[in-house]
Each structure stands twice: as C-alpha cells, then as structure tokens.
Amino acid sequence: MKPLFLTLAVGSLCGSLLAQEPQPKDSTQVQTLGEVLLKATKAKVQDPITQSNLTAQDLAPLNLGQDLPYLIQNLPGVVATSDAGAGIGYTGLRVRGSDATRVNVSINGIPYNDGESQGVFWVNLPDLGSSVEELQLQRGVGSTAFGPGAFGASLNLSTFKAQNEPSLQIQSSGGSFNTQRHNLKFSSGPLADGFSFSGRLSKIDSDGYIERASSDLTAYWLQGDYESERSKVSLIGFGGREITYQSWYGIDQATLDENRRFNPAGAQFDDQGNLEGFYDQQVDNYKQDHVQFLWSQDLSERWDSQVSLNYTHGRGFFEEYVDSWYSQNVLYSSDADLETYGLNPVMVEGQNISATDLVRRRWLNNNFYALNAHLNYNSAHIDWTSGVYTSYYGGDHFGELIWARYAPEANPRQRYYSGNGDKNETSVFSKINWRLDDNWSVYADLQERWISYRTSGITSDLVPLNIEQQYAFFNPKLGVTKSFGKGQLLYASFGRSHREPRRSDFEQGVFTPERLDDFELGWRAKGRSAQGRSYHYSLVAYYMDYQNQLVLTGAIDNSGAPIRATSGRSYRTGLEAEGSWALSDQWTVQTAVALSRNKNVDFISSFDGVLQNLGTTDISFAPSLIASGTVVYTPFQGGRFAWTTRHVGDQFMSNTESAVSLLPAYTVHDISASYSWAKPLIGKSMSVEILANNIFSAAFSSNGYYYTYDDDFSVPGTITTVEGTGYYPQALFNILAGLSLGF
C-alpha cells in the first residue's frame, strides 16, 4: 500500500498548496472540450515531457486517404509500415524502435489499444485523420496514460470541436492502384440553447500495391455538443467497417527479386503442387463501433472536472482457404487434417481421406467499457490533476469450418475452437506542475495501476489457455523545467512504467511483466528571429533502461502477428532533433532526426543446437538513424509546394544480428502541392491537393520477418539451424490527388 499512500500524500500536499494560492485562473483562456478532456494525458508546453504537436492544418496537405501512421511519419523516430504497400489497409508504426503494441494511443483521453493484443488497428477507423483536430506524440514514458503503459511513445488524439457557424465540406481524392477516398463533413454551428451537431461519412477503396491487397473501407462520425457558461458535453458515435484482402504473409527474397508485388494469400494448388489460382474471399472482415460521452464542468474560478464514458464493440472474422497439398508438403502443418476440426476420416472411391482442402473463419467478438474521471486545479503557479480510470474488456475467440471438399459429416459453420479473455483495469493518479517562480517549475506524476486478466477455453492452435493473472504497478514520473525566456526552456525528467504481457505472450508461456526507467534531457525553443520570421526546435537526449523487455523475435504467427520473447536486460539511448525555420516569406525548412543505440545485454539464443550468450546485440526492428527533411515553398497566396526526403537506416529483424535478417536502409522522396482559392469558383472554400510518393521509385521494404528452425534430419546426429526471411515491399512511384469544397 506504500505507493497508494504516496499518491494520496501528493494529493494532500497539492491541496495545502492550492489553499494558499490566491490567484484565480485566467478566465480569458478559452479551451475546447477536446483540450479540456485531454488534461489527464496531454502534456503542456512547460511540462518536462518530450513531445511533438500537430494540428488538423498540419495534417491537411498529406490527408488524402492514407492511414494516420503515414500522416505523422515525419516526426522524430517514427517509421510507418503498410502490408498492402501504399498506406491504406493494414498499416502500423514504430516509435524509437518500439512497435505499435507499445505505443499507447488514446482518442479524447480513452485508450484505443486493444485490451488483449495491445495492438492498434488503424484499419478499423478509416479516414480517422479527417476527424483529428490536434494530436500530440509523447516519446518515451510521457505523462500518465490509461491502458497499457507507454514503452515507446503515447499518441493522444483530440477530435472535432464545435464550429462557430454552419458548414458542409466535401472531399474527394483518388490515384494509383484505383484508390478513391470520398468524405462528407458537416457542422450545424451553434443552435438554440447551446446545442450543435457535426459529423463525417467516409468511403475508401483501393486495390493496394500488392496483388489482391484490396481495401473496402467505410467510416462514420456523428457528434452532438452542448455548451453553457460552465458546462461542456459531447456525445460521440463513431466507427468503421473494413473488408481487406489479406496481405500479411509477406514474400521471401527469391520472390521479392522476381515479382515484388506477389501475394501468396489464398493460393490454391493441385495434388502435384501446381498453382491453380487464388481464393477470392481470403479477406479480413471486421466492424468496430465506439460511443463516447464526454462531460466537462467548471466548478469555480480555479476548479473544473471531467468525466468520460466509453463503450466499444468490435466483431468480425478473417476467412482463409487451407490448401491440403500446401499445408502438408510445405508447412508440415495439421491445418488441413479433418481431425483438427473434430471430424473422422472419410472414404472416397475406396480411398481413406484424412486431410482436405477447406475454408475456415476465425472470429473475434469483443466489448470494451471505460470510465475516466478527473479533477483539475489551475492558477498562476499551480496545475494539478487527479483522477481515476477503470475499464473492462471481454473478448470471445472462436473458429468455424464453413466448407470442406471432403467432410460429409461437418455441420455448417461448425466450431473447432472457442475461448475467451476478460481484463479488468483500475488506475488512480495525481500529478502537479508547480511553477516556483518565473523561471523554475517542478513536475510530479504518480500513478498506480491494477490489472486482472483471465482466459479460458482453447486457442486457434487447439491448445488450452486457462490463465488467471493479477498485476499491480506503481509508475512515478518526476521532472524539472528551467525557462530562459523568449520561448526557450530546458527540462530533465525521470519516468518509470510497467507493462503486463499480452494474450499471445501468455500463449508463449511469458508471464513476467516489463519495466522501463526513462531518463530525458531536452531543450525547446519557439519564437521569432530579428527579421520577424518564426522558428521552433527541440533537442532531446534520452536513455531508456528496460528489465524483461518483450522484444520482437522477428517471427510472425499464422495470422501475421509478430511473436515476442523476453530479452532480460536491454536499453535504448539516443538523440532527437526536430525543428521548423521560416527562412523567408516564401521558404520554410522542417527537419526531424533521430540517432539511437538499441541494445540487448547478454542476449542468449540457441543456434545449431547450442545455447549461446551472444553478449550485446541490436534489438530487432530498431534502426539507428531515422531522418526526414521538408522544404516548403509558398510562392503566392494559397499556393504551397513541399519536397520531403525521408531516410530509415539499416535494421535487423532478429535480436542475434544475423546477417540474413538485415533489413536494408532506404531513402524515399515525396512531393506535395496544394492550392486554395481566395475567391472560390464554388462554395465558400475550394482547394486542390496532390501528393506524389516515392517519386524516384526506390524499391524498398519497410517491414519484414525472420524465422529459424532446427534441421536434425539432413545429417543424422547433427542439428543445423536454418534461417529464413520475409519482406513487405512498399509501392514504387504512386500519386494521390484531391479536391475539397466547403459550403
């Protein structure tokens, strides 16, 4: 109970400080509801938190249908990936070498990461970037975040704010690979008695760069707002439906050299192993709906409170053709065996059939409930927030056999496995930023978090999974900031975070939680030069010390999800720089550079049947150099041209530094152009945007996988480790163009 007493002590200390504070908060500072509701998770400029901030205006030149990871890939330490190769469909991001399961994403202060897999599936919310009003990427531990602890970064999204007048906006874009994005956004403006309504409808279609990697995506966003002098209330319903042809298997090096667009998903073979074609319904079909109730209340000149309620319902399946020949002769798998599905062998023309071509569906049906409530105090010297968060996640997992070439006794949609998982989480926190004088401020953020996770039934691998685990974590964060005036400040911080294993880790027999100690030293500056030209920049040095970090092994499971293993002691350290400088009225330069060293310490691995201590090795999927630079040219009012160069250095797809697992560095150049009419030909506003990606057609893969297996058959008495790799090629030159009309 010691951590709880510490948190309560901070709250009591804050209470005594607040009682002595005579100044009321500045009532002229008007905040949107989204800004208010993010107080618990969003860092302020003066907080000692490493952060990057973008607005809807910053995202607009790139927002032509690609997923959010592609809209923020020029921030420091960020790498975006796409299974389909063009940023639409299944996409992901890594920050500081940490994969998406370790980036804590919130929408209006509510966690978006899946409760069991801890992953972030942007495909379930197509065109989300069109509803984002502002976002903040906190690198490292960051401030208090609800849901699984941040082990690489936190991404906090604030969505629509109420508009001051009625509006209607229509956006259409299209381009390479038959990509089309159409959306309609509307706002009623203020109505009688403080009410207003707004929303968005979106439709995105794309064939994908990879063969058959198509996406059929729809999304909606409906929001009602009420605002009075002291209250702000929003009721939001949003969600999406995705049907994507699977492209998560990647290809090997030989196929990459011969046909980099090849997609093996759904392949059908005859009895001699000749490719006959592809199953046309090898799709992922999933629907997700969210309801959020957000309420902010001013209690006095210095006090306000926020309450958020959330319900999320997700359901869907992925359908796959299991080819008997391929399963038995290439994968050496039992997936095509009738016994796997609880069926007996059948006699066909005198032949005993024990395996057959078949089609199966693997389902997920889940519900997520969350309550987030906090109390805030704000004055000239004190910012204090305390709150409580509680959530419940329940997920059902089951598989169905929907067709088999030889299985006369099978029932339609016969289930062959079924299991579930339940996760309860509760956390309390208290944080304060105390401005000691005009130059110095101190920061403290204490959080306690309790998790209970239970599973029952069997997995898709037909293995029983009956888990009951409880975890309790204390996550302190401390920092100090020194202001030098003229928008310049220096900060230092320490933060600790813990993280529980996810469902697939338990399936691998991993129960030990992770711990991260994060040290950050940074400098931020924002202002104008003597010539009146704006600039802002930041420099950060960090050291992230991990205990029992779950690193990616490089391998993936049979649904394309990465497999993790505990690495023991490891660390990430580096330097990050970010900045924007207006060189003249027409020219602006933007840059982001991340230099890092990501290492496992005393890493142990088995090779050729021998367990070896490999010493210090690179952590998988962690390039030591990530850099981007953009030159923006605005030759006349409403016109904008930009050239972006992005480089991602070499990275290993294993933790053993095997040369076979090297994912080569790549450099990509993009060009964007836009024009907004001062006097629109149609409506109140009119603009066109063009985005040309990878203009020099660099042939690269932004992601891949690495696997090994032991061969003890070829040479009797000898074990030889065989290595293999797979790659996810990205699109060569491709283009998107769009038109936006406002009424």
Highlighted features:
about 750 residues; Maltoporin, Chain A; 42 strands; globular; about 55% strand; disordered N terminus; 7 helices; single chain; mainly beta; 22-stranded antiparallel β-barrel
What do you see in this structure?
By secondary structure, the protein is mainly beta. The chain has one domain (2-742): TonB-dependent receptor, beta-barrel domain (Maltoporin, Chain A, Beta Barrel). The strands form nine sheets. The protein has a 22-stranded antiparallel barrel. It has a five-stranded mixed sheet with strand order 1-6-7-4-5. Strands 2-3 form a two-stranded antiparallel ribbon. A hairpin with a 5-residue loop joins strand 25 (514-528) and strand 26. The longest helix has 18 residues, at 2-19. The protein is globular, with a radius of gyration of 26 Å. It starts with a helix and ends with a strand. The model is unreliable at 1-30 (pLDDT under 50).
Number of helices: 7
Strand percentage:
over 45%
Let me know the largest β-sheet. 22 strands, antiparallel, barrel
The CATH architecture classification is Beta Barrel
Q: What's the end-to-end separation, in Å?
A: 58 Å
CATH superfamily: TonB-dependent receptor, beta-barrel domain
Shape annotation: globular
The count of domains is: 1
Helix content: under 10%
According to CATH, what is the topology?
A: Maltoporin, Chain A
Average per-residue pLDDT, rounded, comes to 92
Q: What is the radius of gyration?
A: 26 Å
Main structural class: mainly beta
